[in-house]
Design brief:
The protein is of the alpha+beta class and 212 residues long. Helices cover 32% and strands 21% of the residues. The protein folds into 2 domains: 75 residues; 121 residues, Ferric Hydroxamate Uptake Protein, Chain A, domain 1 (Beta Complex), CATH 2.170.130. The radius of gyration is 39 Å and the shape is rod-shaped. The termini are far apart.
């Protein structure tokens, strides 16, 4: 129902939308004086309404700009390379070298574990190979300690006491990881460092020695 107001002249209850018409018709001599404040009030209300709408529009525009700016900064941050090192990996099975495949972390058939993808740049894996040289490219948007076992997980291979990237360890042989010539057990992970030389090996000895 329409709101009811009292006529200021006769005291009659009149709906708000009909009050102006009532004053003009019943009290024409008083109309100019009485209707001016009503008109000014309506104009003021109209201006306030338009101003409120403008404020809402401006606020929405500002929020949109802020959100776009945040998204842009986040996108740029995720695609800024902050870490780029090149360890070297070799594979030696009883003294015979094996080739480390190219495009690990690039070719989907050589990119099995995607749990580190958020550290990559431009949608790539943060650890990858580009050729068969054995050079590992660590290209990350975050500085952190990437490891050998993380790389092997991306490749879809592993090393343990019984096998080295799919090569079975026979009796009287041992699986070893050699870091700059120093042998460690295959269950120990190795953090990557620039120009570090890592060899995954099966040696003809019952156990890994510190000088293998």
């Amino acid at each position: 129902m329409s709101e009811v107001e009292t006529c200021p002249v006769c005291g009659r209850p009149i709906s708000r939308k009909n009050l102006s018409g009532h004053i003009r018709k019943v009290h024409p001599k008083r109309a100019p004086t009485l209707l001016q404040p009503i008109a000014e009030t309506k104009l003021s209300i109209g201006r306030q309404s338009r101003w409120s709408k403008r404020i809402i529009i401006y606020a929405l525009i500002a929020v949109s700009i802020i959100l776009v700016s945040i998204a842009t900064v986040e996108f740029a941050s995720m695609n800024t390379m902050r870490m780029h090192i090149h360890p070297q990996i070799s594979i030696s099975i009883l003294g015979a070298p094996q080739i480390l495949p190219a495009n690990i972390g690039i070719d989907q058939n050589l990119w099995r574990d995607h749990s580190l993808d958020h550290y990559g740049v431009n949608g790539g894996s943060p650890i990858l190979t580009r050729d068969t040289s054995g050079i590992i490219h660590v290209e990350s948007n975050t500085v952190r300690n990437f490891t050998l076992h993380e790389f092997l997980g991306i490749w879809g291979r592993s090393i343990d006491q019984n096998q080295v990237v799919g090569n079975v360890v026979q009796p009287n042989e041992s699986a070893c990881i050699l870091v700059n010539g120093i042998a460690i057990q295959p269950n120990i992970d190795v953090g990557f460092a620039d120009k570090e030389n890592i060899t995954l090996a099966i040696i003809n000895a019952p156990q890994c020695s510190a000088t293998s």
